[in-house]
Amino acid sequence: MFMQGSKCDLWPLKESTSLAGDYTRYVNSGLTTRHMLTGSYPMRSIDAKAYWRKCRKEGDIQFSIYTKRESFYGEYDKFIGTCGLHAHRDIYKSWEYRILIFEPGAIGHGIGTEATTLVVDYAFQRLNAHRVWLGVNEMNVGAIKCYKKVGFKEEGRLRDDIFTYGAYHDVIRMGILEDEWRKRKSSK
Fold first, then answer.
1. Known catalytic residue: 147?
2. 3 pLDDT above the threshold of 70
3. Does 23 have pLDDT greater than 70?
């Protein structure tokens, strides 16, 4: 594994047919994609693989999120989502953070918070980032709570920026700066 937490492990995202099949099956079911800002579905696994390939060519850093699961045969890793750093702006040392946990049973257990913490730590420790930012649908209260827990602060609001499920919604822009991250790390 690439990064390990107590609730999840992050691995570099591979363009495997198996992962793309799981990803598209869950995204197409729509159970956890209600608040997505981008993307469309239904999609095919070949579309997911092409998108991942395009992101990699653009210099994005993508991870697959795994959790440990118990079965009759013992413990195994379960692919439950993706996260990563996108839209790198080298001159500003800025990255956009994105996450999608598509496994409904994994929502609300702190996995998103841990994955976000791991990626933000990676951005500041390994990539020499100055700023990590994100956009979140105003209706996604759980995600907003998660991001605030990690140290993101609201920076602005894009009014009626997305249309989903028959209504327009604001997008909240949030960010965390390197010095804010360092203060949080030193106080723990």
1. yes
2. yes
3. yes
